[in-house]
Amino acid sequence: EVQLVESGGGLVHPGGSLRVSCAASGFSFGTYDMTWVRQVPGKGPEWVSGINLAGDSTYYADSVKGRFSISRDNAKNTLYLQMSNLKPEDTAVYFCTTEKYYCSPGSGCYGVFDYWGQGTQVTVSA
Questions:
Q1: Is the dihedral of CA 104, 24, 75, 79 positive or negative?
Q2: pLDDT, tens digit, 9 for 90 and up, residues 41-68
Q3: What is the pLDDT, as a whole number, of residue 101?
Q4: CB burial class (10 A; 0-12, 13-18, 19+) of residue 90?
Q5: Residues 53 and 30: beta-carbon distance below 8 Å
């Protein structure tokens, strides 16, 4: 079955760095755009970053731009998020997801996150 398994989360001090990973299986990893989404208790999910199939186009939320770097290794079916200069507000559960875009006249385009991992906790605290 489709599985996305995040790992690499933990406790880090403000200003520190951490890399989280997502191991994918059960589907054709290289045929999906991938994203990282994060969520804190009591709040809705926040899209963090996205990457296209080949990994040559990346996108970032303004809140993490310049600090985070998304990448993928299709040969290893693995997605990464390198996080640097971490801030307390980065504390969240980080999920990797697939993403498919759908476009139609009038309604425009939207993405659908079909598959999610279990998430990995990242805590940024002094």
A1: positive
A2: 999 999 999 999 999 999 999 999 999 9
A3: 86
A4: buried
A5: yes
Report the C-alpha gap between 24 and 65 in whole angstroms: 25
Residue type, 76: K
User: What are the CA-CA distances from residue 78 to residues 15, 30, 52, 62, 86 (Å)?
Assistant: 26, 10, 13, 24, 22
For residues 46 and 111, the model is more confident at 46
Give the pLDDT confidence score for residue 111 in this predicted structure.
Answer: 87
Question: Quick one: three-class SS letters along the chain?
Answer: CCEEEEECCEEECCCCCEEEEEEEECCCHHHCEEEEEEECCCCCCEEEEEECCCCCCEEECCCCCCCEEEEEEHHHCEEEEEECCCCHHHCEEEEEEEEEEEEECCCEEEEECCCECCCEEEEECC
Given this model, what pLDDT does residue 90 score?
Answer: 98
Torsions phi, psi for 106 (to 5 deg): 85, -45
